[in-house]
Amino acid sequence: MWENVQAPDWRSSTYGRCTALIVTMSNCPSAKGVRASMGAVFRVPIEAGAEVPEGGSRIALVPNATEPVWATDLTGPVVIVVGAERHGLPPDVLERCDATCAIPRAPEAESLNAAQAATLALYEATRQRAASQAESRNGG
Question: What CA–CA distance (Å, rounded) separates 105 from 95?
């Protein structure tokens, strides 16, 4: 879920097993965004103006969370909530999330681009799910 991200990088929706992208602003992908998505905007449902959905774990990506994204369980149904680079997530959105996690960055880096953060979190969800499936197949 993008929260007030003014110019989302639509390519991040191509990573992982993203089943829907929820945006809280009205700007749809531009022609450049559609090209950059490599067709993902046609495969992944996009809903505008939605609230933080119910069902599954709602995980907020915040810069100063104590738990890194790789220590967060992303194997089940999950909504990854990403805020704008400058302002982050509003307090009312954070209150509706079940947990927070961060993508660790270099000390001199103030923040990550929202699309980079979403892409890394979706990649981590895919990695965790693949590892969980492999473990199940191997009797673990």
Answer: 24
State how far the Cα of 114 lies from the Cα of 84, in Å rounded to an integer: 6
d(CA 52, CA 93): 7
CATH number 3.40.1280.10 given to 2-137: yes
Question: How wide is the angle at C-alpha 29 spanned by C-alphas 92 and 128, nearest 5°?
Answer: 65
Report DSSP state, residue 66.
Answer: S
pLDDT of 34-80, one tens digit each? 666 666 667 666 666 556 667 778 888 888 899 999 999 999 888 88
pLDDT, tens digit (0-9, with 9 covering 90-100), for 108-122: 887 788 878 888 888
Cβ(50)–Cβ(22) below 8 Å:
yes
Q: pTM of this prediction?
A: 0.72
> What torsion do the CA atoms of 13, 15, 20, 25 make, to the nearest 10 degrees?
-30
Where do the structural domains in the chain lie, given as residue ranges?
Answer: 2-137
